[in-house]
Automatic annotation (TrEMBL):
<keyword id="KW-0732">Signal</keyword>
<protein>
    <submittedName>
        <fullName>ATPase phospholipid transporting 8B4 (putative)</fullName>
    </submittedName>
</protein>
<dbReference type="InterPro" id="IPR008250">
    <property type="entry name" value="ATPase_P-typ_transduc_dom_A_sf"/>
</dbReference>
<feature type="signal peptide">
    <location>
        <begin position="1"/>
        <end position="23"/>
    </location>
</feature>
Length: 237
């Protein structure tokens, strides 16, 4: 009937529009994630530097960064092109600050320089805090060559930073993927509802309620009609 048509068609239209919008949002979100995961860094594998996707970087890998490159994981700075193992990083993606920050390697590791064979033979062990979202704090100990060395935030380069004013540096992955401080700060995705989303929800609820009322009214009228027909057909009348 016409009543059924006017109830269902608007409801289907509203639900379809909502589904298309959500699907579009999901597509662009996944596309952005894939772009990040498919970024490449130079990783020391079998004593050779090889390009590796960010998604495949794991704890213990030694990575080479060059000037203006994004950092793929939370790294312990081992050595750099600058004197005394210094390097400069931009942390705008982490804390919004555009001024450069200085990081410096331990003197015992800065001696490794860019010597691939020595870096490949690095067998230091890091014991540190569990993954957390504190961007300005880090506590750990590096055990290497029968010595222990304290680690703090100034020895660490975090994922999301950009290497600046430094030709190159090497670092060992401490946290990767969801364990990085950047990802720990992301937490669960919070979906912000726009005014269009709220309007869609209101329309869907209104259409459902309207459909129930109309269906209920039609049922009552149908039932009333049946009773009338039964009364008219009753042999006692």
């Amino acid at each position: 009937s016409l009543t059924w048509f006017t109830t269902i068609v608007p409801l289907v239209l509203v639900i379809t529009m909502t589904a298309v919008k959500d699907a579009t949002d999901d597509y662009f979100r996944h596309k952005s994630d894939n772009q990040v995961n498919n970024r490449q860094s130079e990783v020391l594998i079998n004593s050779k530097l090889q390009n590796e996707k960010w998604m495949n970087v794991k704890v213990g890998d030694i990575i080479k960064l060059e000037n203006n490159q994004f950092v793929a994981a939370d790294l312990l700075l081992l050595s750099s092109s600058e004197p005394h193992g210094l390097c400069y990083v931009e942390t705008a993606e982490l804390d919004g600050e555009t001024n450069l920050k200085v990081r410096h390697a331990l003197s015992v590791t800065s001696e490794l320089g860019a010597d691939i064979s020595r870096l490949a033979g690095f067998d230091g062990i890091v014991v540190c805090e569990v993954p957390n979202n504190k961007l300005d704090k880090f506590m750990g100990i590096l055990s290497w060559k029968d010595s222990k060395h304290s680690l703090n935030n100034e020895k660490i380069i975090l994922r999301g930073c950009i290497l600046r004013n430094t030709s190159w540096c090497f670092g060992m992955v401490i946290f990767a993927g969801p364990d990085t401080k950047l990802m720990q700060n992301s937490g669960k995705t919070k979906f912000k509802r726009t005014s269009i989303d709220r309007l869609m929800n209101t329309l869907v609820l209104w259409e459902i309620q309207s459909g129930r009322v109309k269906l209920g009214t039609n049922s009552e009228l149908s039932s009333f009609g049946m009773k009338e027909r039964r009364a008219l057909c009753s042999p006692d009348s």
